[in-house]
Amino acid sequence: MYIDNITNAQRAEVLTAALPYIKKYYGKIVVVKYGGNAMINEDLKQQVMEDIVLLWLIGVKIVLVHGGGPEINDLMNKLGKKPQFVDGLRVTDKETVDIVQMVLAGKVNKTLVNLLEMKGGKAMGISGMDGCLIEAKPKNEKLGFVGEITKVNIEPVTDLLEKGYIPVISTIGCDKKGNTYNINGDTAAAYIAGAMNAEKLFMMTDIDGILRDKDDPSTIIPHLTVSEAKQLYNEGIVSGGMIPKVDCCIEAIHKGVKNVTIMDGRVPHSILMELLTDEGAGTMVVGD
Amino acid sequence: MYIDNITNAQRAEVLTAALPYIKKYYGKIVVVKYGGNAMINEDLKQQVMEDIVLLWLIGVKIVLVHGGGPEINDLMNKLGKKPQFVDGLRVTDKETVDIVQMVLAGKVNKTLVNLLEMKGGKAMGISGMDGCLIEAKPKNEKLGFVGEITKVNIEPVTDLLEKGYIPVISTIGCDKKGNTYNINGDTAAAYIAGAMNAEKLFMMTDIDGILRDKDDPSTIIPHLTVSEAKQLYNEGIVSGGMIPKVDCCIEAIHKGVKNVTIMDGRVPHSILMELLTDEGAGTMVVGD
Amino acid sequence: MYIDNITNAQRAEVLTAALPYIKKYYGKIVVVKYGGNAMINEDLKQQVMEDIVLLWLIGVKIVLVHGGGPEINDLMNKLGKKPQFVDGLRVTDKETVDIVQMVLAGKVNKTLVNLLEMKGGKAMGISGMDGCLIEAKPKNEKLGFVGEITKVNIEPVTDLLEKGYIPVISTIGCDKKGNTYNINGDTAAAYIAGAMNAEKLFMMTDIDGILRDKDDPSTIIPHLTVSEAKQLYNEGIVSGGMIPKVDCCIEAIHKGVKNVTIMDGRVPHSILMELLTDEGAGTMVVGD
Amino acid sequence: MYIDNITNAQRAEVLTAALPYIKKYYGKIVVVKYGGNAMINEDLKQQVMEDIVLLWLIGVKIVLVHGGGPEINDLMNKLGKKPQFVDGLRVTDKETVDIVQMVLAGKVNKTLVNLLEMKGGKAMGISGMDGCLIEAKPKNEKLGFVGEITKVNIEPVTDLLEKGYIPVISTIGCDKKGNTYNINGDTAAAYIAGAMNAEKLFMMTDIDGILRDKDDPSTIIPHLTVSEAKQLYNEGIVSGGMIPKVDCCIEAIHKGVKNVTIMDGRVPHSILMELLTDEGAGTMVVGD
Amino acid sequence: MYIDNITNAQRAEVLTAALPYIKKYYGKIVVVKYGGNAMINEDLKQQVMEDIVLLWLIGVKIVLVHGGGPEINDLMNKLGKKPQFVDGLRVTDKETVDIVQMVLAGKVNKTLVNLLEMKGGKAMGISGMDGCLIEAKPKNEKLGFVGEITKVNIEPVTDLLEKGYIPVISTIGCDKKGNTYNINGDTAAAYIAGAMNAEKLFMMTDIDGILRDKDDPSTIIPHLTVSEAKQLYNEGIVSGGMIPKVDCCIEAIHKGVKNVTIMDGRVPHSILMELLTDEGAGTMVVGD
Amino acid sequence: MYIDNITNAQRAEVLTAALPYIKKYYGKIVVVKYGGNAMINEDLKQQVMEDIVLLWLIGVKIVLVHGGGPEINDLMNKLGKKPQFVDGLRVTDKETVDIVQMVLAGKVNKTLVNLLEMKGGKAMGISGMDGCLIEAKPKNEKLGFVGEITKVNIEPVTDLLEKGYIPVISTIGCDKKGNTYNINGDTAAAYIAGAMNAEKLFMMTDIDGILRDKDDPSTIIPHLTVSEAKQLYNEGIVSGGMIPKVDCCIEAIHKGVKNVTIMDGRVPHSILMELLTDEGAGTMVVGD
After folding, report:
1. Which one of A63, A241, C161, E160 is most buried, by most CB atoms within 10 A?
2. Displacement of CA E192 from its chain's centroid (Å)
3. Over the stretch C194-204, which tens digit does the pLDDT of each residue have?
4. Which value does ipTM take for this structure?
5. Chain centre distance of CA D197
6. Cβ separation of D102 and C104 shorter than 8 Å?
7. What is the mean pLDDT of residues C264-284?
8. Which of C17, C42, C95 is nearest to C268 (CA)?
9. Hey, which chains touch B, using 3+ CB pairs under 8 Å?
10. pLDDT at A2
11. For D147-171, what is each residue's pLDDT tens digit?
């Protein structure tokens, strides 16, 4: 490993240098929306899990919210499911939502739990169906089981935190009629973090953050207020796929999160660096 | 419904007649191994869920352990997986154990959770991987990921009970290397019930119980001690598929369960009848 | 018993049919003012006690408030006490209030406690003197120790509930000078239920409920708001002995009870039927 | 009052002189069997109540067990009940035990509770029927409802102590068939104190203590071991009415009480003097 | 001792006479600012400690705040420190504040703790530096380390009370830069008592209380409101050294103390007499 | 600082590399005997305090035991105290022990508390007199107030840990007569760590550890069992000033400490390096 040339004395210095940051986040709630490359690349995945367990050990109340990455597509392909679209959006029929449920709550969720346990953490994996965590309704009848969140019952998450677990959450929703819904992961993370008045929400992406010139990483905007973010829509700087991402940040702030960071999940240990050093990564959005 | 002709006065009588049974199980741990027809037939499934929620409401600490029923086979078929056997036992390769994990922890588990919530319960679905509940090792190297339980960490289950949830458990196991194992559901239920010193373990089956003459339901043996059960092996009365089932009962008693009932899951509300009336169902096994 | 012809399967159906009602009252406070025929008729008494214990077992926080029935008169007769009246009201001298205290707190209270224990409950009997539960002053100097409630200290009742007992309360009051007062049972029940913001108060009587035509049980009014009840005074439908009874209902609502039911104690298991089935009994009064 | 000539400075000295005694009994369980003259004489009664409340306030866990004094006889006389005897013992028929229950649990108990409350204490009065505190069976079939204790369920008493009350206990017993029994007060106190491993049991009597020469108070024996006490039976020094009293002391020690004092209830504030000064009163019995 | 001629019966009377006062202060917070003669005279010191332990034993939550008496001067003299003054106030250089810290937190504090332990109490000695109890800044740059309180963090005191200790507090302050400050003891006591909403603050002094004619003890003013106290400034009755003392009383009332007594520490057991008898000592100041 | 050339990515790696060590000591009790150069050199002092606060933040239950370093001598010199010796040991008269008390409990203790608070910790400083933590008797009458520990009452330390403080302990002792004793710091640390069954005791010294050749640091013995340590006495490898130090290690192990490390306090961050990296420092002694 490339830290082999660091002496133990230097290691100790590094650890004590983290003191004020550890103190700052001790006992605070931090929600991580995990996805993208950091979920596919095996090294990055291992590092994210290490970061989560470290934060858990030093007293941060960490919650991991995950989407499904490409594994849903994989299983759909294997099962020969052909995508159908209405108004440009994918139709999620019963069979598809079953696949989503199996991949998210069965495969991805449990694999993450197992990784966290192997790193020394104590994790429990749940979905939006457990304890009716995420209640939903159809977003649009034509789209089938694509869900819009109607209510978040945060008790299952706080119960697990009280018992000392790292809650790992699959973003599927349920309703009182027994239906399951596919829920957008970023939105779910924003709702959950908001309901818990989280100190911080990390939105892991595969971009550097918000760039003033999207082709020049040096133009990254490190810090934004909600008002400034809205202004960026008008200026066309936030556009395309960034719009729903930034919408989620703003929604999270409105629902009670202290600050949200759109973070580059491709950078090793980006969570730790953001929380425990003076070098922020990506773009942080805060209230006005 | 066929109780329409029962007056409310009679209903009240029935309720108060259940008093001594309610009192007996109040605050006690009861583990239900759910499977077979009761998991396939929609009416039976609804009734089992009603029974579980009722018991939970009247103060029984109920734990639901489930297998996967035919849904694992369904998905394997759809994915074109061909069964392979070694010494007459199915080889479970990595792909197969992934399917098992997805179906059990993703599909069946969450569907049961949702049903319990719809009936008015508060449920949380976990697997043997959450909080390292079930640790396992390969039973036989040739069989791949067929697991033998090495350790049960019961804390996740007791944590959920303390927080007021009905724990719903998928019987997959894990090890410290990140492997997942397919675990026999009856065995897992016996280990879990034993680790909790459960008052009672229900083994739901599609048979009447243990019959002295397997073709004559009237020869059912309602009550057996462990010694008597062992004697039945010698007499050939317990044979074939019944052997592992009765083995599990004996194992559960040895591990600390007060009594185990092999119960006919095809009978509506068989759990309630066994617990709350004077009419036992199936065969009860107790220590000597 | 007349439920002998009900099968165990039907019993199970009846039990699960009670599920939504059990859920509704789980953890809620229900106060029962017990009196009249249901206190004299041995069968009815047994059934009321069974109902109370059942409700207690399924998690209702039940409080039993009782008067003295005819036993006070019995002892007075035996002791040769002659009734005296002022303005048509019975004068309660020191000797009489001692008799009331002995019969209520000594005889009736302890006998009810014992019955509840025999049915499987855990009960503790107290009076308005214990923990200064009911403080009173003379209602009218000429009447002696007939008391008017000045204060209810509800702590003794909540202490017993917290410790898991069914509180059984004799309605006698005390003051800071060491006097004991005879307190009207209905009024005491209304004050106690109000102080606890009870979910429900049952007023057990020997009538069907409030009838529009007092000679025709089919004219029963099943549901009344406080305003509607007041209107019935004007219409003369609530009159005579019903006036103080309905006054108590209204008082209870004003003091914080969610709803009050004037219930026919002559009907077997009337409490259970009201709480656990869809068939209400008597007349329910609620706030506007 | 005869302490009018004591200055406040002296009062303060007296209070601080009690310091080591207060410290010794802080948080300890002390059971007082209250009876005899101290229950009849109004001044003595007031002083006992003051002593109890003072001990309660300074952190002693005090439990008051009372008999009925002459009030049972009073009511029996008024009701024209004639005593019947078998083998020299009073026959207690159903009517008599009802009278006992009414006088003890209804009259004496509540009056003591009220006195304690007036002195500033927080008291709750229960009987051996509440929470099945005292279970009993007939001592001798010919005697009717004279009870022999079969079991003491101490939970109701500890529950009240935990909630901060002074438990006041009437010594009547119950069985599972609904019968009530008249229980000897000294025996009940010994059983209750034993079940709680009380630090001290006071047996209040109308004698000086155990005298070597029963006509000479100066021959009082201040301190006895159980063995020495048994020796006194042989010597005839413990005889007649003293025998059951001393039996109770020995029984209490055997059941777990640290020490028992046979105390002269005719001496004002005898409890306080025994506990808070260096002047013991009566005869103290301890284990060998 | 001069109470030798008091009988044990009289002692018991005295103890029970204290009942209403004990009841009044049970569980209440009482802060004692200890200083003056009562700290120098060995007999008085012993008596104050006895009073404190007695109050602690009878359930008062007592907090002892102390200054340093003449011991600071002693050590300064021994070390040859010469006093310097600016504007008539003593300059406290680094060396002096070190001496103050050593004498207060090292000598006086621990000696008091030891005395309380010897009397049977359970005490823990802390200073304004522990848990940042007293944060301060320089009162006047020219005076060096004479501190003005900027913040009181009362948590260390409540933590010790919860754990059952008598907190003994040295009045030195700290800041975030590592400086120590000499804090006026009366002011610190007023701030601490205020932050705890104490029931009572005792200001121990070497005067009788506030006298209308300072040469005539019989003109003591036993009771004052804050407004009346302020009026006394104008009348010149509060003047000289009394001004800061009375300022502290008023400050304490404003910060939330129920009442403050300026008490004559030269009178033996003055605290007990004030709290547990009907004879108030000194001058009590209350809100308007 | 010499870690300026370490990137944040490397910092993150270093932090996660500490994961297994953090996990190992989470919730465990670690006692640090602080003294020697690490107490005099300002940089080392700051680093030790940082290490302590870091360990506290990551969930170690850390206890700091300190001696007085050269500050006691300083004050003695200033006060003109001349050392006296008996049998080669320093006589500690009343005046000397007062100086020790003032310097340890007043100066050193509070200064350490303040440093810990400034680094972000929550600390409370106590001495062996608080809560009678260290009871002692004279070691040798001729030596005056040099104390030998007779009893350790660990409750004050566990109370502070439960309330979340870092206990900082001055090693002075007390007896029931009000005497103060000067206690050897190493011995006190061994007793305290033993009474708490600490996971680890650090003995900070100014040597490398135990060297096989005292002039050659490369001959350090990194790991010793108690038996091996005793053998080193015989071999003369442990000799002179090392004897009492090693005696303390052995005593600590006997009293219940899991392991003791004689550590070189002159190495920066030696505590962190020992606990959180794979590079042990000094000599570790464990049970056989």
Report:
1. E160
2. 10
3. 999 999 999 99
4. 0.93
5. 15
6. no
7. 85
8. C42
9. A, C
10. 58
11. 999 999 999 999 999 999 999 999 9
